[in-house]
Write the structure tokens for this entry.
Amino acid sequence: MRIDVFFDVYPHPAKPYFEAQLSEWRRQGHVLRLFSLGQIPGASSQFDFTFIDTLRQRPLQLARKVAMRILTQPSRCRRIWRAERGLASKVKRLVTDAQLPTDTPDVFFMHNLATAVHFSYLRHAAPHTRLAIYYHGGEIPGVRQIPLEVSAPTLGRADVIFSNTEASVNEVIGRGAPRERTARIPVGFPLERFVPPADRTYLPDQRWRFVCLGRMAPEKGFDVALRAFAALRAHIPSFEVAFIGGGPQLQRLQGLSHELALDDIVRFLGHIAFPELITLLAHFDALVIASLPVAGSNWTETQATVMQEAMLMRTVVVAADIGGVRESLPAALHPYLYPPGSVTELTDRLISLASCNGETLRQLSAIAREFVLTHYDIRTINERLLYHLGSVAT
């Protein structure tokens, strides 16, 4: 199968599941071409990809490309021009399309709604090529929120819409996706890369080791986690916490940690490359997910893939009961879910977890790892994706 894959940002070091999916597709012999609207400085990929420029970035070169596309594919250009509203939108789509190959694949595969909005014109440009969208969740705070009058027609043009949890499937249906064309297929993992050490230990010297991992941003609720850890000191004599990741709130969170007198137990480790991060996860007893809703944003946690990564390394999870988090955890860890945003409830769950000894943690972590092995194998998941893609491509 020939698949053109589109991203809003690629490569993305915080989303290793992109590479896992692409690697599996290529291993299976499919022909891939990758296109991205944005780049992160310094990020690299094992795959070749095309960055889509704007007219402002390369005016003369892109004007020439558009002129050549009009000369060589006038019918396609006419379809794009007639489908778009407003002169600026028409020109923008022609500029984008002039940077794509002239031959069409079997399937256009869009990662994220924002990407699908930008490239939704392809339904008109190449009407016989099927269009698939993977909805990873709503737009994060600070990013332009896509209104229903834009999301609904974009999703309505897709032949199939994938999302990773029942919660996010219901969310994308609420944003205009036809229910009969949606499918719940989670993000998968190359399981062979996640091998916990044979001498995996818990609570060394009876000292708990917690980790919070993700983008240091309001929606991740790391301030709630810090306040819960401050309250936890009255109940657990010995523990330490690592915060991993960068982002706009890093300095504020460091300041809050100092205000709460947590400097002796909290470390901010910054960004850690994924291969090293996998190994490091096995050195913690519990991952804490403190995500919460943010006013003015339609973002919510969906699969929270860091939870599955941690569980594969036999690290247990305490998490906010938000979005698709509950369905992405085994039932054995549901007692450690708490209402998002509540410092008191998170503290209570941490106290409850702290009543576990090393042997109990070992048993819980074995259940957690088996849950991920059963439900998130990239090979099985990609077979399901390809089944749907093959169905819409025939």
Observations:
- The longest helix spans residues 358-375.
- The mean pLDDT is 95.
- The first strand starts at residue 2 and ends at 7.
- The chain has two domains: 2-52+99-188+377-393, 192-375.
